[in-house]
Specification:
Layout (H helix, E strand, L loop, with lengths): L1 E5 L19 E3 L4 E3 L11 H5 L5 E5 L1
Antiparallel strand pairs: 1-4, 2-3
Bound molecules: iron/sulfur cluster (SF4) (2 copies).
One iron/sulfur cluster (SF4) binds next to loops.
Length: about 60
């Protein structure tokens, strides 16, 4: 199981991470990305991490 989190203080709001999430759990509120679904539904694909220019996304394997 993986848990994804986004550090709002670090996110620059580029919105690069949301579209590529196969679990569709990343949302964008116009300023920041956030986890809008069940954070434990993260598949651990690291797509969001690879596209994030600021290192705001982190994944923890439980
Ligand atoms: S690691 Fe993959 S499944 Fe998990 S939040 Fe990021 S893009 Fe979505
Ligand atoms: S890719 Fe990174 S900086 Fe861009 S919206 Fe997502 S978390 Fe924020």
């Amino acid at each position: 199981m993986y848990i994804v989190s986004i550090d709002e203080e670090v996110c620059t709001g580029c919105n690069s991470c949301t579209e590529g999430c196969p679990a569709r759990i990343l949302g964008f509120n116009g300023e920041k990305a956030f986890v809008e679904g069940d954070e434990t539904e993260c598949m651990g694909c690291e797509s969001c991490i690879s596209v994030c220019p600021s290192g705001a996304v982190s994944i923890t394997e439980m």
